[in-house]
Design a protein that fits this description.
Elements (H helix, E strand, L loop, with lengths): L3 H14 L7 E8 L6 E11 L2 E11 L12 H10 L10 E5 L9 E5 L4 E2 L6 H4 L2 H19 L3 H4 L10 H16 L5 H12 L9 E3 L8 E4 L2 E5 L6 E3 L1 H11 L15 H12 L6 H24 L6 H5 L4 H11 L15 H5 L13
Antiparallel strand pairs: 1-2, 2-3, 3-5, 4-5, 6-8, 7-10, 8-9
Helix pairs in contact: 4-9, 6-10, 7-10, 7-12, 8-10, 10-12
Length: 368
């Protein structure tokens, strides 16, 4: 949506879905720049009424250009999940409309409500760091929302139709293995060793099958005064083992850019204990679930690095993704008692690509 004509098409499309609101206009639009997986546009819709002008803030989420970090990318599935969650305790944004055709903006998209709140994706403002009680409450609220996701009534919401979920762990290993093989440029001994250990050590899955968010990092939660107001980025959501989500949060908890790493935050052990108290779900085999998520994250980073290497994007963030793979792999193998990991292999773009972006390509084709 980078031309005036695209904005006109979108306004016309929205007007068709809001026929009672005549003379609909988009007063402003701005791109939301954080994240890597999809493009988002914040809009203010306005229309006249008998008593004055009414406004509604919405967000348009577009499918990322192909090829992207997460393929296949299913907008309709996300829309279905978010619609099902609207009457639950999960504080996800309400969705309004879906365009699967791609005819309006060149790519499929859906429109959702704009939720008030701040997202702390890459940094903590000093004023928040100076409020330890708020930071502590934020970590508790995050765990409460993860518990709410895992306590969703699958039958009552209709989400049971997404799948059985009992083969979730095997599906995850198979999916991310296939993605690794699809993009790899050469032998990847470190990732191969981690994959072999994951398969050899695979535990019995949790006895509970739940809705799984798939990406519950601290940067996917919005907050106002310490309370969660929104949970975002449902691209990898599905039905499966809730401990996969716990393992991902456990993996990222002490990452310095996240508020969960601050002294006032719950410790990762305290967060897990609080989760168990809220859900009644025992958390076992934490090192394995952390390693599973490290493997998944590493493969996604590898995809991003290889997209850059192949010239599908000039976004420098993608060029740097491969640098994080080795630390993830080494940490996970160390948790398994393997302290002399094999070499990483080609996980970063070639030096000539990093130094000389393809001049035939311009702009960011993969950010959201």
């Amino acid at each position: 949506m980078r031309t005036e004509n695209a904005l006109e098409r979108l306004t016309s499309w929205l007007q068709d879905r809001m026929p009672a609101r005549t003379d609909l206009q988009v007063e402003n639009s701005s791109r939301v720049t954080f994240g890597h997986s999809a493009e988002m546009l914040a809009l203010t819709l306005a229309w006249p009424t008998a008593t004055g002008r009414r406004r509604q803030d919405v967000v348009v989420r577009l499918r990322p250009p192909f090829p992207g970090l997460l393929e296949p990318y299913d907008m309709a599935r996300q829309f279905t999940i978010l619609r099902a969650l609207e009457k639950t305790d999960v504080r996800s944004p309400a969705v309004l409309w879906l365009d699967e055709s791609g005819e309006v903006l060149g790519r499929p998209f859906y429109v959702m409500e704009r939720i008030a709140g701040d997202v702390y994706e890459q940094q903590m403002p000093a004023e928040l760091d100076a409020r330890p009680a708020t930071v502590h409450r934020m970590t508790r609220a995050l765990v409460e929302q993860l518990a709410a996701i895992h306590l969703v009534d699958l039958s009552g919401t209709g989400l049971v139709a997404l799948g059985d979920g009992r083969s979730y762990l095997d599906h995850q290993l198979d999916r991310w293995t296939a993605e690794m093989r699809r993009v790899q440029r050469g032998e990847l001994p470190g990732l191969e060793r981690l994959l072999a250990e994951l398969r050899d050590r695979r535990p019995t899955a949790s006895e509970r099958v739940t809705l799984v968010h798939g990406d519950p990092k601290p940067g996917n939660f919005a907050f106002v005064d310490g309370e969660v107001t929104g949970v975002f980025d449902w691209e990898m959501a599905g039905i499966g083992d809730p401990l996969a989500d716990v393992g991902y949060l456990d993996l990222l908890w002490k990452t310095p850019v996240f508020f969960t790493s601050r002294p006032a935050a719950l410790t990762s052990d305290e967060a897990v204990a609080y989760y168990e108290e809220l859900t009644g779900i025992p958390v076992r085999h934490r090192e394995w679930y952390r390693a599973l998520q490290a493997f998944k994250t590493s493969v996604i980073l590898l995809v991003g690095a290889m997209l850059f290497d192949a010239g599908h994007t000039d976004d420098p963030r993608f060029g740097m993704m491969g640098r994080a793979i080795t630390p993830y792999v080494r940490r996970s193998l160390s948790d398994f008692g393997i302290n002399e990991p094999p070499p990483s292999g080609p996980v970063e773009p070639r030096p000539e690509r990093l130094l000389k972006p393809d001049p035939a390509r311009s702009g960011d084709r993969t950010g959201r």
